[in-house]
Predict the 3D structure of the following.
Amino acid sequence: MLGSGWAAFLSLAFVPLYIHFLGLESYGLIGFYVTLQVLFSVLDMGLTTTLSREMARLSAAGNAAAQDMRNVVRTLEVVYWVLAVFIITAVVLTADWIATSWLNSNRLPPDVLGSSITLMGVVIAFRMPYGFYAGGLIGLQRQVLLNGMKSAIETFRNGGGVIVIWLVSPTITAFFTWHAIAGVIAAILSRMVLWRSLPRANGRASFTPSLFRQLWSFGAGMSAISLLALLLVELDKIILSKMLPLDELGYYMLASTVAMGINLIIVPLVLAIQPRLTQLVAGGDVTGLRQIYHMGCQLMTVLVMPFALGLCFFSEPLLRIWTQNADIARFSAPVLSLLALGTAMNAMMNIPYALQLAHGWTRLALITTSISVLVLVPALIVMIDKFGVIGAASIWVVLNAGNVLLTLPIVHAKFLRGEYKHWLLVDFLRPTCVVLAVLGLGRFFMPEETSMTGEAVWIALWVTASLFVGAKVTPVTRSYISRKTAG
């Protein structure tokens, strides 16, 4: 969490500087790049998740599986670099069309848009292998090493980007040029770190087509799920980029950036829990699996809800403090509240989803995401047309709430029969209700006229209080606090 938190802090802290040096429309283009990056990540085809799962599964055998581990990495990385070349080619060939026929820009000329989109392709093509090698380190449960590397890379990437647009050239092309350079360095470094972390073997790692065919079934299921899940997350931004001007997309992306900051809690927790769940399933340890599962779910609720609901209740003052712009805060605050609530509901799905992957079961996720996409597209078009960015954010809340209510009973019935009631009452509702009550009181009694510093202190105190109270009513965290207090 510290590693991911540092990366998130850098990206969030520099957003006001991006807007200051580049303008809101250029920031909207950065938002489009983020969406494009997420869309291209579907070409991962589940390879990163497959690599992570195989590293976790094979690591249970220790050095006896060293050669197999190296062959898996070599086989999947060859496929991955072919995908990187494809991405660069696809973006270069479509850059001019995107610049002239898709984006709606009032200030940026077509040639600047075209060159920026071309550079986006280079950045994306090298960021994906970086994520792939990081997935291997996660499977090896080398989170400390990974996050040390991630912190260094993100400091170099984001800090250098600000220096470039501040001291060298305050242009969007300079911004993407720097990020392309940083992406190449990150890919090379992460590859070196993963290979050095693998156990030594007598033979050389080799590309093995039969191994790829063996892993393809799980990877294909993950690829389809990833495609549909990415569409669920990014369709709002894609449709907004077509239906609304770039400046309004910029407001929406600002709120989305803050709401997605909740992922700095979600992702590290899932990445720490999932390899362990996979090992327990492989070993047939049902008791241990049940304990780790409930621990993960309780930690997810206790850690996510105070910050997510804090964003809901205090969205406008937080945005005003962050951006130092009252107009931006007023426009983006309702969007942020809705996106944060939807993201919190989405967080509750992550540990159950990790349980499904630990069993190699992708069918339920594939069915539910397929249905969601079919419903989402027309719903977004109608809601954006009638309500603009508020309509898009509302759909995100409804979608995730529906998934929690409909799919989690099925997951528990299949893998942890009789445990759904425990999840609902103990893992989720109990900490969520007390956090909601504490933050509701904090918002109700918040002084109307105070300085930004006073607002920041007030919000921090109430979010901290809600975190502590939520932890005290949840078995896993309450036990931890009691042990530390007694010690």
In short: The longest helix spans residues 66-102.
